[in-house]
Automatic annotation (TrEMBL), chains A, B, C:
Positions bound to Zn(2+): C112, C152, C154, C157
Record field: catalytic activity: Hydrolysis of terminal non-reducing beta-D-galactose residues in beta-D-galactosides
Pfam families per record: Glyco_hydro_42, Glyco_hydro_42M
Family membership: Belongs to the glycosyl hydrolase 42 family.
Organism name: Catellatospora citrea
Protein name: Beta-galactosidase
Taxon lineage: Bacteria, Bacillati, Actinomycetota, Actinomycetes, Micromonosporales
Length: 667, 667, 667
């Protein structure tokens, strides 16, 4: 039922406001065609003011209100922020930092996920909520916790870590080998000697650090599934998820977690205003990739994004007019089952009182609400929220499409196919590589995600519809696969990449790929150990460049940051360093081709290389020759165009105004 | 008696030197016309070498020596630095950092002001000093402690904080409301759950942080008044004060404290050499403002400043020749009852051995002492230290005034009126706004004091005599009042500002004013909530600009850093943003006018605006059209001119040499 | 026996590899003409897997293998990294940070050198190794511990510190005086009140900090001598040392320690690629200076350096072709008894897996091994490893010397004199001055070692053979002695400098010399207190300049950073500041001359001054007018030339190719 398949709305925190505001909120939600509201995320101290004593009355009224207004509830369990009584009762169940400092409440996320006391009270409140609301007609999706990702190094963690390691490694000998404990005399003789990677004198053990991230990910996942299962025990049909937050510091393996949620949901906060369109595309493509690989058909949900700003170097840059809808629709075009914001009404007090809301402090008169309302109307007109029986109202800023085919001609929601992936061009993205790079003490600082996003951005700029795929994804069928800086690569992944090429794929591998095994041990004998044969190259030396130094290749391209010294026992050379050494290579293998890029290329060089590779592979962009800043997405409804620039462009014979979103009819 | 009303001198730490140096010091003090010396500030471990056992002999000799030389003693209680025996006896009464780290002695200021043990020994030594010296003829002023401002987060603090909160908020419900604890599930169900804002996982609660500053201020004030009262019990006529240190990190509400001292005393250490004249003027005007609002008639004292340097980005810039006297006299012109330095003789060892002294390490032969001596002679000749019967000796660098009226014609000290305030132009300065801005997580980093000083500096540069006024100051009579970034504004303050304009005042309010109530809750409905009606504007959106971005207004002026989107339901527009939206507005209200400046203006723009406002309000500068770097102060003795530049200027028809101080006769 | 006098090799960690790799390693060592391998440095958890239970079998095989291949073993005690069982058994014997945080294992160097438990287990393992291997024929040198330098602030340290202070100062009165505890009320009344300089509120006591460094140095030295003596008890003929690591943070007084080792051994890791040649020369000259002053005849050993990289601002810059041998030979030319690397085979895992090795991850095919092999062959041909009976093979990159005298004509190792010092030109280097500068809160940040290296580098660039001398070195005979920023100077040192000049020496003293006594108390009466009379100057004021500000002298030279105001009661002025004040002075004293440089001069200005001084003193460079980047060293075999540039130069009538090393025959 399409009504039920689309989420347009926001986090709603009515407990921060007098009840008369609730009525205004519900009316305004209707006005903005909101279909769903997330409630309860940080309500624990309201729901359970003292241990075991519940106050559900207010939440009853909230859910009833939503239901009466035809709005779905995304009901959260509040376990991301235990109330002050938890600190009081269980001081040793709070977060301990790496240096042994015990944190206290006063913010959020202050707890140890391995503390039995924390797990017990979490499960209790989740169960109580399930008991009470599992059959509430407003509840459409359960949202366990919020943005899992809290580190802790306490004794509970130490104990649990040992158990996890026993399970993973079996014996201490295996652990010692995996962690290379012969380096710096770290060989363990007793499981009790193993500790979390707490503050130590100098450089830590990378394998220990990586395993600790894996451990935290697994333990948080257990905390999640524990709540999920409690909910499903009461309501087997319940849909349950949790919102993923992306970031190098987050010890959560989202690809793995995606198997345990009913709908992959992400929060997305870009780090720069100008970079927001490309960053949004990457996050959306990654979420779709996780969903697809976990068997969810590529469907996912943008659970949180900021209504009106992008925080850039500590400054809240305002989204210019039109950007709210353009970014929301770009996510939807890439498979999101809606667009949800944090938050509905900006808080008057508290730590995030200056986070923007759909209803800003001044009220519903502001531009941001007008834009949200227009977007809601547009979505409703599109059939994405058909339970609302209001007339379709054309929203000018969403299109400058002339009469004829276009928005007006779009099919109804019910008729639409679900999600379109690329199927042609993919970028490999493995969060564990980011962890691995972060744990290791590399020859120079390396930003894994930045490298991956760079390659994705180039393809995005060139008009390609790109899938971002985790290592477990099916690779067959892709014409082009880019594997940037896949530092940690399992034997199995290496085998699958070989097979991919052999079967006809075009593979582009960059420097720092296939270097270490799953325990961060270098694959010796010549880099990239896991892919040396496939690529036909042998790297003998890394030669990182200091900031400000560039090296010109004989192709006219430029490398900065990273270079290598390699020999090419089995590959053709496409580009060379100034001294004639190979820089970029190509090797035919089976029915396919494997390229190796031994240096950090700038965007222009990536364009030239990828254009060539895609042409050779027969991977066509959605639209060719797009101007910079114009995004084209293939959807079941045809191609959507997003003009992220201020200028009017002519695309596919049509004028597309600055800031406009235009849909081309399915051809 | 004028002798007794003027302080020219320094901190003197004879305990660091053999007694033969004391005699030399006293002789040199006479030579430099020193009238007062602060003693005992950090002498606790000498005065009470073991708990309860006193050694007053050396201090007897110090005070007797001062008295014999006709020099007053400012006698300090030494409680800012407990001796090592305190650490040994009361390890849990030492400072605990936010992260739980307990500090130890080895520096200064290591104690918890809420620890009963600390309070007990502090009161004991203060009482012992009072008993012994209350009637010593040299003791003219008591100086309790030194630069109150130490943070602590220990359990003593937690207990005391709860008591303070109960008194402030009454019930937990009120507290929960004031602190917006519904955000992030922080609702308190038991007073015992309330803690100081210790290290937590992520962003802290702004209202908790602000109340903690208020609490620390109150508790330190109680520690001060406890000592003050003990002294006054022994010597009811004793004059008692403590030295205020300005800085964003100092949790002391100086406006409030000013009511509890007999003489407002400040320490002043500018942060840049070129900025020192303007910063000194601001600090002086603020001290005068606190004194006036607390009923002390505007009298105050510069208790500490550095003899020969300004520390700028970690480098001690030397004051060029003449600057010592020029800065001292500028403070005096603005109401200081003297000029005191830290310190008399530079320490040979210890943490501040490289802090400059009037007697530098090389001895009394140095330039700094020569300048101090010349200043002393000048002050004596001025009648500010008439107890010294020495001939007046003209000090050339203090003036290049030609014969005739001028220094030579100045009236005697006895004849002078006391302190002149501006009475015409004022700048609102509320340290709590700085705390509020620091506790909040704003849309961009904001430097409250920098903004206030910027507006003050512009008026200073334009030759205005400015009062810097705390919120409780009387506003009636000011022609112009500038309120920069008064983020936190009480209802009462808003009412008084309205009344001020209504009665004929010209009010200039900037962005980020009137935004939150006293608990940091945003005043919703359109910014600036507290002043919206008065100003006739309604701000819908903040639009902070990243570093390096500027916006041109239609007046030719430039805004950087902060801009806003506003509507002007009831105001005229004086300047507009490039897109035509209002930037600066003006509204007539009653007999006055209220201006609103929605963006950060550079100095040139502030000059244009304030010149216009002052002209309209009839607020004339002390002297018009002063060159940059020339300061004019109106005093009871006429106008004093300070040429802070190296160039000679023609002012009011007279040549004023580079670096010179010139007095114009009262007209 | 020359064989036994030369160390070409590396740290070898066979325990990280399967035994089949050992055989390959030994064969490759032969191939590279390796004469020595350091083993056991971090092997504790392998050697003593559980407390008191040893596993020596593998080390037996390692040492036997080395012996069979004719390679010497440098046998380390493994005490720099206690195994995890130590943490488990003695949690309170681990490092405590200044802020009280207790560190745990997981890296290296995590222990308290003052913890009885640590000392006991360290002595036990060292003794066990001595018992077992003292008579092993491969063992040629004992290498106790690794890079002593770990700070700790725990209670064990507190107790030991008090004992050390009692011994040093005798009474508390003396301590209070030495530490100037009257500043900020720190006077101690009981030894139990004395603590390590733990985290405190604000600036710490410089004298306490300096004494704490001295204390740590002495206690680590005691830990070293304890192990050394245990070894010598078993094997009185054993040669024992430990490897010094240079760095401002290392609390080890290497000049003093040099008396306790049988061979001064240093590790050297330059901080910039371009700066590596000059930094290496400085480190080598310093090591030779320590050795000579300690009676070891100037012999020393480069125990560790990196095979293939220099880490510069976090980026591993690759050594270009030829640099490996050039830097190794440059050290040897300056007296090193060999060239040892860290490490032989790059680790596959662990914290330093990206540290380069002679055998890189790709194996023995790489450039770095080829260069190491070529160097080994060259050294063997030179007679430095005559036990290897292989034909000499000319290594082209080591020379472009035309036929005739040169490498081919070099004498045999047996015939060579041992070490040549300069004997003519010296630079004063006292690590305690670095500590003193670091502990004090100076008028601006000062980099002591940077200043010393700057003066050394100028002399090096001008072709001088320079000795770097500790304060205890014999000074007689030097024509020129430069004393840069010798902030802390004892009376005895001052007396010896005076005598040095009086006897005919040319002494160049810079600003910030002779300022404080051994307790960091300023020598009052005019800077530089200890040298005022000798230099004939009297500094009255320091005038540090902010970054970016330069002052031109009347000589055309430029000063930045530091300037001073001085009078010259007894000296001639060589250069003046813009205002005519003296900047550089000269005073004849006895048969010599004393120069004073009151400001920080740039390299060009140092060249002009030192050229003049050296000319006047009759100190000739090894070769005159060397191009920048060409280094000339006088050795027993004649002059060695190192061309660190890429260009070919004509030197002494011969062409010297870019990167080449050329030996001129003894003339």
């Amino acid at each position: 039922m399409p009504t039920k398949s689309f989420f347009h709305g926001a986090d709603w925190n009515p407990e921060q406001w007098p009840e008369q505001v609730w009525a205004e909120d519900l009316a305004l939600m209707r006005e903005a065609r909101v279909t769903a509201a997330t409630v309860g995320v940080f309500s624990w101290s309201r729901l359970e003011p003292t241990p075991g004593a519940y106050d559900f009355g207010w939440l009853d009224r909230v859910l009833d209100g939503l239901h009466e207004h035809g709005i779905d509830a995304v009901l959260a369990t509040p376990t991301a922020s235990p109330p002050p009584w938890f600190t009081q009762a269980h001081p040793n169940a709070l977060t301990m930092r790496r240096d042994g400092v015990r944190l206290v409440h006063g913010s959020r996320d202050t707890y140890c996920v391995n503390a039995p006391a924390y797990r017990a009270v979490s499960l209790r409140i989740a169960s109580a909520l399930a008991e009470r609301y599992a059959r509430h007609p407003a509840v459409r999706l359960w949202h366990v916790h919020n943005e899992y990702g809290t580190w802790c190094f306490c004794d509970h963690c130490a104990r649990a870590f040992r158990g996890w390691l026993r399970e993973r490694h079996g014996t201490l000998d295996v652990l010692n080998d995996a962690w290379t404990t012969d380096f710096w005399s770290q060989r363990y003789a007793d499981w009790a000697q193993v500790l979390p990677p707490r503050a130590t004198q100098y450089l830590g053990n990378p394998a220990q650090e990586l395993d600790y991230r894996r451990f935290l990910s697994d333990r948080m996942l257990a905390a999640y599934t524990e709540q999920r299962d409690a909910i499903k025990q009461v309501a087997p049909q319940a849909q349950v998820t949790t919102n993923f937050v992306l970031g190098g510091w987050v010890p959560v393996d989202h690809a793995r977690w995606s198997h345990e949620v009913d709908l992959v949901a992400i929060d997305h906060y870009p780090s720069s205003l100008d970079g927001a369109p490309a960053q949004s595309a990457f996050a959306a493509d990654a979420a779709r990739g996780w969903s697809a690989a976990a068997g969810h058909g590529g469907r996912w949900l943008l659970m949180e994004h900021a209504p009106a700003h992008v925080t850039e170097d500590g400054v809240q840059r305002r989204k210019p007019p039109g950007m709210l809808a353009r970014i929301a629709l770009a996510h939807i075009a890439r498979g999101s089952q809606g667009a949800m914001y944090f938050q509905w009404r900006a808080s008057a007090g508290g730590a995030e009182q200056w986070h923007t809301g759909l209803i800003a402090h001044p009220g519903s008169t502001t531009r941001v609400f007008a834009e949200a309302r227009a977007l809601g109307n547009h979505l409703a007109a599109e059939g994405r929220a058909p339970s609302y029986r209001s007339a379709y109202k054309k929203v000018p800023f969403l299109t400058d499409q002339p009469a004829g085919p276009g928005l007006a001609g779009a099919g109804s929601g019910a008729a639409r196919a679900d999600v379109v992936g690329s199927g042609e061009v993919a970028v490999w993205f493995d969060e564990l590589c980011g962890w691995a790079v972060g744990a290791s003490h590399l020859p120079m600082p390396v930003d894994y995600r930045g490298i991956v996003e760079g390659w994705h951005r180039t393809l995005w700029r060139r008009g390609h519809h790109v899938d971002v795929v985790p290592p477990a994804a099916a690779l067959a069928g892709y014409r082009v696969l880019v594997v940037p800086a896949a530092y940690l690569l399992s034997d199995e992944s290496a085998r699958r990449l070989d097979e991919y090429v052999h079967e006809g794929g075009h593979l582009v591998v960059t420097y720092l790929s296939g270097i270490v095994d799953e325990h961060l041990r270098v694959r010796c004998g010549g880099y990239p150990g896991a892919l040396r044969e496939l690529l036909g190259v042998r790297v003998e030396e890394f030669d990182p460049l200091p900031a400000g130094v560039a090296v010109g290749l004989d192709t006219g391209d430029t490398a900065t940051g990273w270079t290598e010294h390699l020999t090419v026992p089995g590959a053709a050379v496409l580009a060379r360093y100034p001294d004639g050494r190979p820089a970029v290579t190509q090797r035919a293998h089976g029915a396919g081709v494997a390229y190796y890029v031994s240096c950090a290329l700038d965007d222009a060089a990536r364009v030239r290389l990828l254009d060539e590779v895609c042409a050779a592979a027969g991977a066509a962009p959605v639209l060719p020759d797009l101007p910079d800043g114009v995004e084209a997405v293939r959807t079941p409804d045809g191609i959507w165009l997003f003009n992220h620039t201020d200028e009017r462009h002519e695309i596919a014979g049509r004028p597309v105004g600055g800031g406009a979103v235009v849909r081309l009819p399915p051809s």
